[in-house]
Amino acid sequence: MSETSPKLRAELEGIPTYKPGKPAAAGGQAAAYKLSSNENPYPPLPGVMERVTAAVAEFNRYPDMACTALMSELAGRFGVPLSHIATGTGSVGVAQQLVQATSGPGDEVIYAWRSFEAYPIITQISGARSVQVPLTDGDVHDLDAMADAITDRTRLIFVCNPNNPTGTVVRRAELERFLDRVPSDVLVVLDEAYREFIRDPEVPDGVELYRERPNVCVLRTFSKAYGLAGLRVGFAIAHEPVAAALRKTAVPFGVSHIAQEAAIASLEAEDELLGRVGSLVCERQRVSEALRAQGWTVPESQANFVWLRLGERTTEFAEACERHGVVVRPFAGEGVRVTIGETEANDIFLKVAEAFRETK
Ligand SMILES: Cc1ncc(COP(=O)(O)O)c(C=O)c1O
């Protein structure tokens, strides 16, 4: 028998593999903290745990494929028709469904760069071409340049607000001006994975923009503010026919019964969960101010992480953090993204940052 391997799609060649944040134990430290994946450091709420535990007893059954109870909860909360909501395996799953639904070989997907590292991956898988528009010098989306990059092959544009990994935002007036320039047959996806951490009143709620504009779709997740990263549930709010296309491109039964129950219980416990978000926002403030006092330039973050543009010293800095028991997320040659975590973890990170500055 000849030793040829199965033929795979040529588009898959050269796709960067998604790099998950390193686990906390990677440094071999006894008390290591993971600040590398923008997770919520708080453990699950007891009430959510109870619902999950009850749901576990039913895992011999398939979940409700339509996520009916969760969808109706979300529809009521946002004041949108049920048919405008689509759930998926995390918002990254929904983002991939959106690319699959709109883009294929010969098409173009525009997004800022650097931004969420899944965008190039899911675009390349679809066979479409990525058009990466550099962030401004202040690490903010360059919306004018993004609008200039639109061609008749553009199918989808991601606007990550706040942007991962810089934490920076685009505000109402500039976003509306941008949306006015986008042709109505091009889908704009407002990725609002970190929406609940925003305190800048000038940042618009994407759901308000969606109401007026049929080509705008909003992505949200239960992974960050609601602390359900491990259960994989996110959703989109979009007009028809986009929402219907999302149901077509979904992995059947992708959102487990456990995840659906946890999401509903989390919505019911929203006050408590948003209280935790408030504490993390205070920590973000404290960490940002302490870094600036040490002399660092820190872009104003509206998310649950901060960005240090370290350039050539990125890897060295990440290694120093790891040696002291905190794992951060380096982007070699560019900078590190550091999640706001437990106070002890943030304090260790601040100490490392201070010592590192002194060696500069
Ligand atoms: C901007 C952005 N969008 C989407 C996601 C995906 O999150 P999830 O798939 O857990 O909902 C992330 C995760 O880090 C993110 O940073």
The secondary-structure class comes to: alpha/beta
Widest sheet, order of strands:
2-8-7-6-5-3-4
How many strands, what sense, and barrel or not for the largest sheet?
7 strands, mixed
**What is the helical fraction, as a range of percent?**
25-40%
Bound molecules: pyridoxal-5'-phosphate
Low-confidence stretches: none
Q: Quick one: how many beta strands?
A: 12
Calculate the terminal CA-CA distance, rounded to whole Å.
Answer: 61 Å
Shape: globular
Instruction: Let me know the average pLDDT.
Output: 95
How many helical stretches? Answer: 12
Give the SSE string.
EHHEHEHEHEHEHEEHHHEHEEEH
Radius of gyration: 21 Å
Q: Bin the strand percentage.
A: 15-25%
Short description:
The chain has 360 residues and is of the alpha/beta class. The protein is 38% helix and 15% strand. The site of pyridoxal-5'-phosphate has 13 residues, from helix 3.
Brief descriptors of the model:
single chain; 360 residues; three-stranded antiparallel sheet; 38% helix; binds pyridoxal-5'-phosphate
Description:
With 360 residues, this protein is α/β, with parallel strands linked by helices. Helices cover 38% and strands 15% of the residues. The protein contains twelve helices and twelve strands. The protein has helices at 46-56, 68-78, 90-102, 118-126, 143-148, 172-181, 206-212, 242-249, 257-268, 270-293, 314-323, 343-358, and strands spanning 33-34, 85-88, 108-113, 129-134, 154-160, 187-191, 216-221, 234-237, 305-308, 326-327, 329-331, 335-339. It has a seven-stranded mixed sheet with strand order 2-8-7-6-5-3-4, with helices on both faces. A three-stranded antiparallel sheet has the order 9-12-11, with helices on one face. Strand 6 (187-191), helix 7 and strand 7 (216-221) form a beta-alpha-beta unit. Helix 1 runs antiparallel to helix 9 (257-268), helix 3 (90-102) runs parallel beside helix 4 and helix 3 packs across helix 8. The longest helix is centred in the C-terminal third of the chain and has 24 residues, at 270-293. The protein starts with 32 loop residues before the first strand and ends with a helix. The model has no long low-confidence stretch (mean pLDDT 95). Bound molecules: pyridoxal-5'-phosphate. The site of pyridoxal-5'-phosphate has 13 residues, from helix 3.
